[in-house]
TrEMBL record, chain A:
Protein name: PqqD family peptide modification chaperone
Short name of one Pfam family: PqqD
Source organism (scientific name): Mucilaginibacter agri
Automatic annotation (TrEMBL), chain B:
CDD domains: PLPDE_III_MccE_like
Superkingdom: Bacteria
A biological process term (GO) from this entry: lysine biosynthetic process via diaminopimelate
Source organism: Mucilaginibacter agri
The Orn/DAP/Arg decarboxylase 2 C-terminal domain, residue ranges: 310-399
Listed name of the protein: Diaminopimelate decarboxylase
């Protein structure tokens, strides 16, 4: 699961797709995960980092991760 | 090291175009307390979902409405509309404040008697009053508002064998310039049916015509409609006085005042658009005072306001069951209360507030109830923060009609709690049990093993 290479992200959650002109705003968690995904971190690494830093169960995080991937697909931000 | 508060990741597409003039969300803070009692402790003690009523708000609403009319007109009486909420605790609050009872069935009539309302302070409305109910009302000297000629004929027949004359009024329907025009109840003003009925009553000599009643609609947003109604009622009263030599003791303008809930399809929120009770009082009383009725002998003005007096005193507390992403990418949230207990979600866009702290991010979503039925939609489209399963929500302004029109369907009906003026909580209706639901059932012997 990789973010398209041309997607631009900012630290405060702004996401821009120069290919389509679409822009998105994300919450803090979204922006943190976007940065990690762009860095090439694996799903397991990202989840572990979040669990270390935030108060969330693995169960809840897995559930939200699935929804996150759905959102990225819907937004056309993932590599095919 | 203490861990940071987590929020699920969420992105939202930015659309260039016309800005939404209402912004994204109206709530800026969590709704954590009702009359000083924590939502969390209410759910812990009484379960989820649970209805909560504020006695303080009920009394405040009543006093404010009574003041609106009584400071403008010399003789005012409110009658609590039982069908709006006939929990005994609620009725008794209104009766303590001075309300009579307004009932529309034998069942409600007997509830009013059970609540200690004197018979002569019960107004008996409705299109179906069986003979035994009419006999009971006559025996108790209640005010019977006749709905149709069949009822009038039945009353005349009953009264043939009576020495005392039953006290009656007729319900009048009329064109007040609003749509829909409620012409299914009572006798029509414009086509002369109402006058015909009044003439028959007076000429019979067997019934005592004491009042005139109308109820022009529900959730009426036009004060002008009440001016028209009051004018026509005063005109009828004056005609009774001059032509039938019958003094009308009271004019009952019924109910129909809106609460501040937002109707589905409304462009603006209800709180910004509905006229206040003061606005209605001003129009009604001014019309009556200027109607030409003698100032020294004005009829008593009766109001049967229901919704406007109780809606904002009721809350429904519930919990988030699950979150979903729908086929079109839209978010959906499943909560543990459905349309079977929140009947008014068919009419209103109910405000739903999170009961715990949340971050500023919101997502547009559909809120579904727990019923395995496609119609179970609490809100079709609402912007809410990112809530997790187990989080609590508060639905506002649910005091009117939900606790009478609710259904035991798929799930059982929840408990109802009253918070008194001293912030003490009282369980005024327990949640239903399987035994309660099955109690009236019988199984034929051949089906019992």
């Amino acid at each position: 699961m990789r973010i398209k290479k041309n997607i631009a992200t900012s630290e405060n959650g702004f996401i821009f797709n120069p290919a389509t002109g679409d822009s998105f705003s994300g919450n803090a968690m979204a922006s943190e995960i976007m940065v990690a995904m762009k860095n090439g971190d694996t799903e397991a690494q990202i989840k572990q980092n979040i669990q270390d830093k935030y108060e969330v169960s693995a169960e809840q995080l897995n559930r939200d991760w699935d929804d996150w991937i759905l959102q990225l697909k819907e937004a056309n931000l993932l590599e095919l | 090291m203490q861990k940071l508060k987590y929020e699920r990741p969420y992105i939202k597409k930015l659309n260039a175009g016309i800005m939404n003039k209402f912004g994204t969300r109206t709530d800026s803070q969590a709704f954590t307390h009702i009359d000083g009692v924590p939502v969390k402790s209410l759910i812990a003690e009484y379960g989820s979902p649970v209805f909560v009523l504020s006695e303080k708000q009920i009394r405040r609403n009543y006093r404010s409405a009574y003041r609106a009319f009584s400071t403008r007109y010399p003789k005012v009486q409110f009658a609590w509309s039982y069908k709006t909420n006939y929990l005994n605790a609620v009725c008794k609050i209104f009766h303590q404040e001075g309300s009579w009872a307004e009932v529309v069935s034998g069942f409600e009539y007997r509830k009013a008697i059970g609540n200690g309302v004197p018979g002569n302070k019960i107004i008996f409305n409705g299109p179906n009053k069986p003979k035994e109910d009419l006999l009971l009302a006559i025996e108790n000297d209640s005010l019977i508002h006749i709905d149709h000629f069949e009822e009038l004929t039945l009353l005349l027949k009953i009264s043939e064998n009576l020495t005392a004359k039953p006290r009656v009024a007729i319900r009048v329907n009329m064109d007040t310039g609003i749509y829909p025009s409620w012409d299914r109840f009572g006798f029509n003003y414009e086509n002369g049916e109402a006058w015909n009925a009044l003439t028959r009553i007076v000429n019979s000599g067997k019934l005592q015509l004491v009042g005139l009643h109308c109820h022009i609609g529900t959730y009426v947003l036009s004060t002008a409609a009440y001016a028209i109604a009051a004018t026509k009622m005063a005109d009828l009263a004056w005609s009774c006085k001059t032509q039938l030599k019958q003094t009308i003791e009271y004019l009952d303008l019924g109910g129909g005042f809106p609460s501040t809930n937002t109707l589905k399809g409304s462009y603006l929120p209800g709180a910004d658009t509905v006229p206040s009770v003061d606005d209605f009082a001003e129009v009604i009383t001014t019309t009556l005072l200027n109607s030409g009725l003698p100032k020294h002998d004005l009829p008593l003005l009766i109001l049967e306001t229901g919704r406007a007096l109780i809606d904002d005193a009721g809350y429904l507390l519930g919990s988030v069951v699950a979150n979903k992403r729908l086929g079109d990418g839209k978010r959906a949230m499943v909560v543990n209360f459905g349309v079977n207990i929140l009947f008014t979600s068919f009419w209103y866009e109910h405000q739903i507030s999170p009961a715990q702290d949340f971050t500023p991010h919101v997502e547009n979503m559909t809120v579904y109830g727990p019923l395995c039925m496609n119609i179970d939609v609490v809100r079709e489209s609402v912007n809410l923060p990112l809530l997790n399963p187990g989080d609590h929500v508060v639905v506002h302004k649910v005091g009117a009609y939900n606790m009478t029109q609710w259904m035991q369907f798929i799930t059982q009906r929840p408990a109802i709690v009253l918070i008194d003026e001293q912030q003490q909580t009282h369980l005024i209706r327990t949640s239903e049990t399987l035994n309660y639901v099955e109690e009236p059932e019988t199984t034929p012997p051949h089906l019992i093993k």
